[in-house]
């Protein structure tokens, strides 16, 4: 407990918060099995929100609802309402492709394309026509790799396949790939699960820096990480959102017994 | 009767050996099989191998050499009358006598023949008995030697596994040796052919009419044959028809594969895929008359309507139908490889805001490329080897033309026509078939090598 509170960031003023995304009554079924129960959650613009909770509690499922990645799973049915800047993203009129360009995602398992490192990062900017010249593209690729803390390791072998990197390097490559498209909201599913402390620190720094322009939702199993990087924290348990609020309050003064038990390591 | 009896004996012997070995292994442990280094079944297997293998070997060797001994023993029985014959006649005489000795009623034969027939019968009656006794001895002896070996720490598993891997090596050896044998026979017969017809005249000659080949020896025959065995027209015909077929099959097959794997609902896919595969099950001769009776007249009529002269047998008709025939090879295999590209790559691409078609073009197809290339290669070799459709729809006339509206012929069709009918085996016409076969083989081999190189170069690892 005390470890976590020592490194808390100063809490953000609640007055000028604008809601970027919001979920109302979000329930998800995988076939017969219900994985999420009536989740209500606001995601505030230019903040980092951590989703925490024991394995299998539905964190990834909720994250995938936010950019409709669940559409690709046949048996998955989402109900309720999710808004992006006031617009229902499950509305018929919404273009899923455009939505995903605005709400980018870093997956739990690194999934680099079987292309060169350069092409992996350049993929998004290319398909969205974000650059006119090769130099601009080079610039995006370089800066994305730098910000993801991978540049020094790969600068000499940008033309080699991204799949040849180590697990942790692949994870950072996927982060670089996601930030290269400059999404408004970035969903990160355990982005540091395979990283050493130094690389983790770099990614956390990146997240903090991205907060200026983007909104970030991060799933993490590390309480310390949640405390370090996020302004808001939401605790899930068995498919239900138990408690959410400013990170400081969740870690120092949780209202629910379950939250307390989880962050002190009694359940999970 | 005989064969069933033999089979029964072999099975009984194997079962007996296996059972003996296993129970012996169990017996020496006083019922606690866990103290054995190898499980009891391996001891049984070892006994089986040691008993059967030497006997089987003797049997095989005897099958190959017995005839030689039989001939020698029979020949020594026969008198002057036989020795007066030439060597060829002696061989023929012995062959017919051997044939008679195998059948029940002999009919009218001369005294000498009767002696020979009796000789064969006696020889085989006696020698078979001896060989059977030897084999029985080997089974028992081998089994006994192995049986004596059985101890708690006997490494029977290693022995059996060694024998199994030897059997596997032997099996792949058979495949390799057969291929080698076929290639060698192709090469040697082709060399014979190239003695009659110069190599370059064959490979680069532009006139193909083997009907007018000149049988005989001497420079006159060579001159004549070097003019009529120019294979360029039929290579060109093959190339033309195959190209048309691939131009039809590659886009249609690939696009239907993409549809099936990424756009179709599971229900459509479950229904459509088997239907596409039925195309592959239609006998080629059915495709052939479809091409000859439906497609070719249709092409000619529509050609006439726009003022083109289309011959009633055309490369286009054959190529189109052949293309349809090989669609399932392309689509079914490509569908499988496209499907095996992991979902996480599709998700990754979609998560960056790529559309479905962008994902397919930029991620899925490059990842699936090696598999798609090999599907195409398979389809091409199918097309090159296809004969029936061409015979029926493209004709037999070896025209040198690049015009798909004319009749052409292909290598495989010519091989067939060269070999049908009564032919001397060493005539130039027959040997030409071998030379064509060799060229076909080299071309397919080259295609495969190129495909392998492409696959290696562009292989993109994913997992
Ligand atoms: N594709 C799927 N098909 C069926 N059930 C699924 C699928 N994905 C997730 N589930 C189920 O939904 C529930 C929530 O899964 P989810 O992946 O959201 O958990 P999580 O909180 O991300 O866990 P972890 O921390 O281990 O990643 C689990 O019980 C899981 O079995
Ligand atoms: Mg998860």
TrEMBL record, chain A:
The protein's name in its UniProt record: Phosphate import ATP-binding protein PstB
Family: Belongs to the ABC transporter superfamily.
Pfam families: ABC_tran
SMART domains linked to this entry: AAA (SM00382)
GO MF annotation list: ATP binding
Record keywords, A-Z: ATP-binding, Nucleotide-binding, Phosphate transport, Transport
Cytoplasm listed as a keyword: no
All residue ranges annotated as the ABC transporter domain in the record: 21-263
UniProtKB/TrEMBL annotation, chain B:
Pfam families to which the protein is assigned, alphabetical: BPD_transp_1, DUF3708
Transmembrane domains' residue ranges: 41-65, 129-147, 167-188, 234-260, 280-299, 306-330, 363-384, 432-455
Subcellular localization: Cell inner membrane; Cell membrane
Keyword Membrane found: yes
Signal peptide residues on this chain, from the entry's feature table: none
Domain (ABC transmembrane type-1): residue spans on this chain: 235-451
Keywords, comma-separated and alphabetical: Cell inner membrane, Cell membrane, Membrane, Phosphate transport, Transmembrane, Transmembrane helix, Transport
Gene3D superfamilies in the cross-refs: MetI-like
Membrane-related topology note: Multi-pass membrane protein
PANTHER family named in the record: PHOSPHATE TRANSPORT SYSTEM PERMEASE, PHOSPHATE TRANSPORT SYSTEM PERMEASE PROTEIN
Task performed by this protein: Part of the binding-protein-dependent transport system for phosphate; probably responsible for the translocation of the substrate across the membrane.
Family in the record: Belongs to the binding-protein-dependent transport system permease family. CysTW subfamily.
Protein name (database record): Phosphate transport system permease protein
């Amino acid at each position: 407990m005390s470890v976590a509170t020592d490194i808390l960031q100063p809490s953000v003023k609640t007055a000028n918060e604008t809601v970027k995304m919001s979920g109302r009554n979000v329930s998800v079924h995988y076939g017969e099995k219900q994985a999420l129960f009536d989740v209500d959650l606001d995601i505030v613009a230019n903040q980092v929100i951590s989703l925490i909770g024991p394995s299998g509690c539905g964190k990834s499922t909720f994250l995938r609802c936010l950019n409709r990645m669940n559409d690709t799973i046949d048996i998955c049915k989402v109900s309720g309402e999710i808004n992006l800047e006031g617009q229902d993203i499950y509305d018929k009129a919404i273009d899923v492709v455009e939505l995903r360009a605005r709400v980018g995602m870093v997956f739990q398992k690194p999934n680099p394309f079987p292309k060169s490192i350069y092409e992996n990062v350049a993929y998004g900017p290319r398909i969205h026509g974000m650059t006119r010249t090769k130099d601009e593209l080079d610039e995006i690729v370089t800066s994305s790799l730098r910000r993801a803390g991978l540049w020094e390791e790969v600068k000499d072998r940008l033309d080699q396949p991204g799949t040849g990197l180590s697990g942790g390097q692949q994870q950072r490559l996927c982060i670089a790939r996601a930030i290269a498209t400059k999404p408004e909201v970035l969903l990160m599913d355990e982005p540091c699960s395979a990283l050493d402390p130094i690389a983790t620190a770099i990614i956390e720094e990146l997240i903090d820096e991205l907060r200026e322009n983007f909104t970030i939702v991060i799933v993490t199993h590390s309480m310390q990480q949640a405390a370090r990087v996020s302004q808001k924290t939401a605790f899930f348990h068995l498919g239900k959102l138990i408690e959410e609020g400013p990170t400081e309050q969740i870690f120092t003064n949780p209202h629910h017994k379950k939250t307390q038990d989880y962050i002190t390591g009694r359940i999970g | 009767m005989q064969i069933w009896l033999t089979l029964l004996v072999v099975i009984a012997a194997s079962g007996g050996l296996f059972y003996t070995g296993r129970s012996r292994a169990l017996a020496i442990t006083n019922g606690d099989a866990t103290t054995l280094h190898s499980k009891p079944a391996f001891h049984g297997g070892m006994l089986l191998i040691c008993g059967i293998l030497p006997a089987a070997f003797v049997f095989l060797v005897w099958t190959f050499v017995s005839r030689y001994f039989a001939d020698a023993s029979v020949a020594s029985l026969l008198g002057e009358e036989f020795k007066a014959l030439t060597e060829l006649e002696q061989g023929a005489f012995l062959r017919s006598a051997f044939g008679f000795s195998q059948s029940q009623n002999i009919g009218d034969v001369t005294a000498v023949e009767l002696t020979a027939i009796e000789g064969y019968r006696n020889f085989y009656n006696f020698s078979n008995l001896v060989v059977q006794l030897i084999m029985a001895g080997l089974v028992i002896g081998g089994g006994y030697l192995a049986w004596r070996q059985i101890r708690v720490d006997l490494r029977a598993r290693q022995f059996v596994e060694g024998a199994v891997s030897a059997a596997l090596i032997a099996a792949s050896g058979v495949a390799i040796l057969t291929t080698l044998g076929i290639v060698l026979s192709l090469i040697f017969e082709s060399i014979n052919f190239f003695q009659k017809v110069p190599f370059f005249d064959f490979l680069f000659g532009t006139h193909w009419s083997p009907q007018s080949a000149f049988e005989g020896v001497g420079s006159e025959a060579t001159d004549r044959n070097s003019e009529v065995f120019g294979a360029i027209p039929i290579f060109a015909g093959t190339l033309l028809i195959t190209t048309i077929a691939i131009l039809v099959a590659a886009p249609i097959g690939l696009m239907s594969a993409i549809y099936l794997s990424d756009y179709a609902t599971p229900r459509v896919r479950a229904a459509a895929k088997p239907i596409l595969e039925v195309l592959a099950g239609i006998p080629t001769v059915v495709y052939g008359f479809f091409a000859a009776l439906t497609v070719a007249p249709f092409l000619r009529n529509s050609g006439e309507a726009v003022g083109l002269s289309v011959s009633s047998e055309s490369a286009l008709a054959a190529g189109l139908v052949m293309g349809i025939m090989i669609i399932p090879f392309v689509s079914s295999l490509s569908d499988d490889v496209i499907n095996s590209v992991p979902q996480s790559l599709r998700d990754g691409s979609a998560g960056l805001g790529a559309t479905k078609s962008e994902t397919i073009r930029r991620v899925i197809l490059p990842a699936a490329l090696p598999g798609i290339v090999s599907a195409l290669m398979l389809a091409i070799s199918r097309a090159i080897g296809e004969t029936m459709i061409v015979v029926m729809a493209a004709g037999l006339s070896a025209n040198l033309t690049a015009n798909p509206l004319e009749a052409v012929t292909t290598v495989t069709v010519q091989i067939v026509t060269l070999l049908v009918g009564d032919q001397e085996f060493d005539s130039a016409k027959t040997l030409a078939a071998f030379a064509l076969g060799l060229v076909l083989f080299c071309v397919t081999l080259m295609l495969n090598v190129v495909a392998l190189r492409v696959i290696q170069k562009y292989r993109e690892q994913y997992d």
